[in-house]
Hints:
The chain is an alpha/beta fold. Helices cover 38% and strands 17% of the residues.
Amino acid sequence: MKILIMGFAKIKYMPYMNFYLDNIDKTRHEVHLSYWNRDLQEEDLTKYSDCTLHEFRCYQEDDVSKLSKISSFAKYRKFAKSVLTSEKFDFVFVLHTLTGVLVADVLKKRYAGKYIFDYRDSTYEGFVPYKKIVGDITRNAYATFVSSDAFRKFLPEDCQERIYTSHNLLLDSLNHRDEKEKNGIPSEKIRVAFWGFIRHEEINREIIKKLSQDERFELHYYGREQQVAMNLKAYAKELNATNIFFHGEYKPEDRYTFVRQTDIIHNVYKDANTMLAMGNKYYDGIVFRIPQICMPGSFMGECAEGAGVGFSVDPASDTFADDIYEKYANIAVPELNNNCDVALERVLQEYRDGIAVIKQSVNMQ
């Protein structure tokens, strides 16, 4: 079979792509990858030497207004349609909601029943025509995966039996579960750490403001830095904060080093989409057995508290730092570790169920 996995970002920023790629036998199938190089910087693609690559090069900052992205989205659509129509694929994996929406017409005309739709962004669901397109994509798909069960409500009821849950789980992490226990670096301070793309400026300003005033804590940011990160660094400097640190971009395997010096994972987001999403750090928390702090009312917060692997605290609260300190001090480590193990096994079972769907999809065509 000739298979295309098409994404909406650079390959290194789509770790969820490996959920599909790792479960396709490349000795039996010809695999193509299409992706968007948004920062025009080179990345190490030697791992994908056994795949045919289709790169779309167009500079686009992520954390800017939606209107400013229209032109580059239109160019991406032209590129993606060209790849889909110039090559004759037997099966397609469509990664990210916007990827599917921008080529929905081609999917319906040429690939109905021959693609898997990976839904992971509800940002534009308030726009009725957009929601209708998403519904059509879901109905025409062989199967749909959601990165969060909270997203299921946006998809058609008559498709629920063909909707599965994917998890942003990096399997190599399982080989490093004891990293913190075996190689942890002790500290008198409670080290709160965020890793990933640094955005959501206002909520992070609140967190920086509250923790920079409290000598019981350190706050660490690991991730690529665009304008929001620059603004936050300037804000920390303005506050003369000596316990706020920005470490820059990292490789996925670098997490195994900085989890050794992380006591709480900062998993706080606040917008309509991320309040429903399941982020990579949730899985890192249960894999590495590190408690996480989430936003009250978020789906991740409900999951973390329900599983006993984290807690929710509002950064806007005047007692934000005290609340974190108290909750962290009351954690029973053996109970936390057991809760993380139970939560991880549930995730792994759904992960295995998803693998079965992927393998069936490419073997039956």
